[in-house]
Structure to design on (410 residues):
């Protein structure tokens, strides 16, 4: 008997006890649906972390000024300006793997436009900063090296500032006041979104570095060329570790630090930080998928149990079929097809429920969800494998029945 002849016999046998077949499929349905939903949630989290990495800028290293101790209290990094514009120029000039090095200062200010005002972060930067951060323009222009050298009163706005000050009108060409100093808006940046630690990158105003120092944030009494941080863009991701080591050695040399002295700066490899978070989310995805897969195994045990019951109930039928010429492989294939049909039918329903559940999680819970076709196929294929694996023993038991004993079975 070939497979095509076996299929209708197997399906008729399953339809004899519809409720039992449905209940048997339930474990597979829940398992497949749970695997798809959990993997989709985990993949969505990984995609979100990848977006955050890209929003910070690819191959980015940030060097932050050191800390200071005041009254026995050690303040955080950046509280003492130990970096200078010369450090940024030296990093870009002397380290071959560096694409750009952009010095910056940062502070907060109240910004006024018309009768509206908004408190935001003000960054004094050079044109290289936009390259280091991979930050594109939405409209207008960036300020030029001449704007920086001439301390021009021009500003480029983030999207959050635009929303709160301009209410849908075009800000390019308008005049805003930062700490009562008038600035001409020359450009608007593309939206970046939040960082991995919840900071709104778009809630910012960027002005030329010299302008920020002389007209908005002030300069250090010790060194007018001091900066709070340097954003360094490396040419290739594979050179990040080497570049980090070279930057540390160069800055220690420039700052005349002895081997026994600690760094008076801190180097942050932001890609490493967020990639560690991505790895954590991957582990969580695998963990969730493994937990959900337990339901598939439970469903497989249910299939084995029901198929063993079915073999017992149909012992005389099996004996009769063998008596009229059915071979062992025919009996084996029939029961295997029944087990496979149960698992695949449950898998198909589980796929539908898993996709629906993923969309529901995304809509009502607000979690990022990414449905991967590979995960759907894998869950469905695993359901079929469960059916074959757990159905083989009952099918083998049925195929090895003695026809005479089977016919005598009451």
């Amino acid at each position: 008997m070939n497979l095509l002849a076996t299929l209708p016999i197997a399906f008729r046998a399953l339809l004899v006890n519809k409720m039992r077949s449905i209940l048997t499929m339930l474990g597979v349905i829940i398992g497949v649906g749970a695997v798809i939903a959990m993997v989709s949630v985990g993949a969505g989290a990984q995609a979100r972390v990848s977006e955050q990495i890209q929003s910070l800028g690819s191959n980015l290293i940030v060097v932050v000024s050191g800390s200071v101790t005041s009254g026995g209290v050690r303040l955080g990094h950046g509280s003492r300006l130990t970096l200078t514009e010369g450090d940024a120029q030296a990093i870009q000039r002397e380290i071959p793997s560096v694409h750009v090095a952009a010095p910056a200062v940062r502070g907060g200010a109240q910004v006024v436009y018309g009768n509206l005002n908004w408190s935001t972060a003000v960054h004094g930067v050079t044109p290289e900063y936009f390259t280091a951060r991979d930050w594109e323009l939405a409209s207008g222009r960036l300020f030029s090296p001449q704007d920086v050298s001439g301390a021009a009163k021009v500003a480029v706005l983030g999207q959050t500032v635009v929303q709160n000050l301009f209410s849908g009108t075009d800000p390019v060409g308008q005049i805003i006041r930062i700490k009562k100093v008038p600035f001409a808006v020359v450009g608007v940046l593309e939206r970046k979104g939040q960082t991995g630690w919840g900071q709104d990158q778009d809630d910012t105003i960027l002005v030329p570095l010299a302008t920020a120092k002389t007209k908005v944030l002030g300069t250090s009494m010790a060194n007018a060329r001091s900066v709070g941080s340097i954003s360094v863009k490396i040419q290739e991701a594979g050179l990040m570790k080497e570049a980090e080591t070279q930057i540390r050695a160069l800055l220690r040399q420039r700052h005349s630090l002895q081997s026994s002295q600690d760094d008076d700066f801190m180097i942050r490899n932001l890609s490493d930080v967020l990639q560690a978070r991505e790895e954590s989310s991957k582990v969580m995805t695998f963990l969730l998928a493994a937990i959900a897969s337990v339901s598939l195994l439970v469903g497989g045990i249910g299939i084995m149990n029901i198929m063993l019951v079915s073999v017992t109930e149909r012992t005389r039928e099996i004996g009769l079929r063998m008596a009229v010429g059915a071979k062992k492989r025919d009996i084996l294939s029939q029961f295997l097809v029944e087990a496979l049909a149960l698992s695949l039918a449950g898998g198909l329903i589980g796929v539908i429920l898993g996709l629906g559940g993923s969309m529901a999680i995304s809509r009502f819970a607000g979690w990022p969800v990414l449905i991967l076709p590979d995960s759907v196929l894998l869950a469905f294929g695993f359901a079929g494998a469960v059916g074959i694996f757990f159905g083989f023993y009952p099918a083998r038991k049925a195929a090895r029945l003695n026809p005479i004993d089977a016919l005598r079975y009451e």
The chain has two domains: 3-52+276-408, 81-263. Residues 270-313 form the longest helix (44 residues). The two ends are 27 Å apart (CA to CA). The CA atoms of residues 248 and 267 lie 8 Å apart.
